[in-house]
Amino acid sequence: MTEFAVRPLAEGEQRPAFDVLSQSLHGPVSTDERWAKRAEGFPAERKFGAFEGGTVIGVTSSIATELAVPGGTTLPSAAVDGVGVRADSTRRGVLTALMAEQLADCAARGEVLAHLHASETTIYGRFGYAVATRGKTLRILKGRARFRDDAPSGGRVRLVGTDAAKKLIPELYERIAPNSPGMMTRPPVWWNWARDGLVGENFVAVHTGPDGDDGFVLYHPQDRRSFEQPEAGAALVVRDLHAANTGALAGLWRFLCRVDLVGEVRAPDRPLDDPIGLMLTDPRACEVLGLEDSTWLRLVDVPVALAARTYRPAAPVVLEVTDPLLPANSGRYRVAPEGATRTEEPAGLALGVDTLAMIYLGDRAPSRLAALNRIEVRDPAALPEADALFATATAPWCGTPF
Ligand SMILES: CC(C)(COP(=O)(O)OP(=O)(O)OC[C@H]1O[C@@H](n2cnc3c(N)ncnc32)[C@H](O)[C@@H]1OP(=O)(O)O)[C@@H](O)C(=O)NCCC(=O)NCCS
């Protein structure tokens, strides 16, 4: 029984759709003042609504970005956000209908990938998404954090005022990123949302190396004093940290660990291989507080996606991919160091399009997923070759909230 219809959102329908989204996330219905502030960042373009009797009951949205894949190529990717269904209309298939429409639209636009951050891990697997990057939350205990003599050094760090930062940081990000698999471009519509919140509400420090500005960090202090610990130094909370090279990364971490009246630096969503711990004389001064899933990736155009990334030296492997939602992706692909193409050869490994997303950026090794029955092994010799082909030198990382 479906009494609702899904279609692109029309001009003038943004505000009720925004309110559905806000309430689905336990937020308020917009006041005129709040809507005036949010309208620019909530265009009708790229949004789909589910309507029942003329009323919006569900919404999904996306922004057009480019996402970096192993080898350095970037691919058009829909960054899916703004997903919500009215609490009185859930579990009737509204999201399922919205996702089908949105994925068909991505394919029609020639977008090769779609990616999102999930509020709950049970939602998106059924639509072909799977975890393709993860992040870790770090705590650096300032009192124990001494940099090794051989840790990269040089360059300098300066604080930048808010108004200057709102112009400088988007330009700097565009120049230095995306520079590793999983990172995405940040289009103007993203900055409309982030300029005031992310940049405007944080301290901004910029690193300058031999070739000019090459890294930045946005952070704010959090008071930790209490009756028990009246002299506890603040926690510096890192909101956004990007560097073009290890020298700039080291310079920014050194700066953060040197700020006065601070007991610890907390940095959520850092790359799994962030090297800060290895730069310290006491690596345990850098604690890992948590590990979170970050990018949920969906391969919208499997042949183009597979052909676009690079592969490491190994014998060719044939993958049989199954994609019930976008059946044009189903089929066999020969993956080799010189590239990936469709083939009629028999497959050594068979997997769903969601599992393919888990190995695509290099986050998981095929053999580990085969051991969990996520990959069917038809030719055992194919498994170590697939591990070698898909391996990457750096851990994939997104580093952009949306
Ligand atoms: C998540 C949400 C959009 C799902 O919408 P929905 O219209 O209820 O989803 P559907 O009815 O199409 O569900 C499809 C399937 O997914 C399951 N599912 C959907 N959301 C789920 C959830 N949060 N937890 C567990 N299962 C969920 C449904 O049970 C259903 O399974 P079935 O096909 O086996 O019956 C909706 O619950 C919501 O708005 N939640 C709050 C806001 C939110 O978390 N948004 C996502 C931001 S990333």
Automatic annotation (TrEMBL):
InterPro entries: Acetyltransf_17, Acetyltransferase_Eis, Acyl_CoA_acyltransferase, Eis_dom, GNAT_dom, NAcTrfase_Eis, SCP2_sterol-bd_dom_sf. Keywords: Acyltransferase, Transferase. Residues 4-152 form the N-acetyltransferase domain. One of its GO terms (molecular function) is aminoglycoside N-acetyltransferase activity. The keyword Secreted does not apply. It holds the Pfam family Acetyltransf_9. Acetyl-CoA binds at V83, G84, V85, R91, R92, G93, V94, L95, T96, S119, E120. The active site is at Y124, F402. Gene3D superfamilies: 3.40.630.30, SCP2 sterol-binding domain. GO terms for biological process: aminoglycoside antibiotic catabolic process. Homohexamer; trimer of dimers. HAMAP family: Eis. Belongs to the acetyltransferase Eis family. This is GNAT family N-acetyltransferase.
